[in-house]
Description:
Elements: E1 2-6, H1 14-27, E2 31-34, H2 51-61, E3 66-69, E4 72-73, H3 79-92, E5 99-102, H4 107-113, H5 120-137, E6 143-146, E7 151-155, E8 167-170, H6 174-183, E9 186-189, H7 197-200, E10 208-217, H8 224-235, E11 244-247, H9 249-261, E12 264-271, H10 277-282, H11 284-287
Parallel strand pairs: 1-2, 1-12, 2-3, 4-5, 5-8, 8-9, 9-10, 10-11, 10-12
Antiparallel strand pairs: 6-7
Helix pairs in contact: 1-2, 3-5
Amino acid sequence: MRYHLFLPQMRMTHDQIVERALAAEAAGFEGVAFMDHLAPPLAVEAPMWEAMQVAGWVLARTSTLRVGHLVLCDSLRHPAVLARQVTSLDHASGGRFELGLGWGSVPEELVAFGVGSAEPSARVGRLAETLAILEALWSGEAVTFRGEHFTLTDARQQPPPTGPIPLTIGGSGRRTMELVRRHATWWNLPVHRVDRLEQLRPAAGDARVSVQVMVALLGDGADRGAVAEMVARRYGTGGLESRVVLGTADEVAGHMDELAGRGVERVHVWFADFAPPSTIDAFSAVIG
């Protein structure tokens, strides 16, 4: 099993984000993933940092950690801009940047900021064009493209990436799964669809399976009841409480082993306590 830390870049300073990334690197995490929003979902007044800037900041201050997002919102960037950003981070980090891309999970955000369309069919169609344009531009050859959403004429970008960019696409809908099958290195199955993993798996083609798991890790001497109350208080109103894996390192490891037995190869760990370095360090017992 490969473990990546999911770290929403809100309510933290840049120094605190780097502190957590370095703790994850030391604990044996393979990577870290940030989120991508113009305002934090369910917490629009909270301070938050831009996704690609944070990724570059963390790549510059780590040495082995792979860095990406769950996931970038396609509507927020023109594919030519995104292609250039990805290539720049890829070269600057020695190939440690991974691209996570989706068609947006919060359509109200797009409406609020006047960015793109809130219609699902338009957003997934736009994502399909973006993926085709990215792959074409990364070849280093001249690209002419005529689509519903984008037009490129003899467009060329140099240099190409150092190698194939690992691509994560999340979702489980029919059109999304078509994109997963055609383009993705990793298919991130939404946590509320994990019970359908075996049913959906054939539609993913050769893409490898990842899931996001929220963890409330019980340290030595922790009060299980108190931690459960914290989880209910913090996440009950958002519908996440029932999906939190609460337990000791051995109990959490057992849950991860079960996922591995079902074919999951990567887990994005989202700590319920906002991932202080002490919790990240304690999770090293799960990584082994």
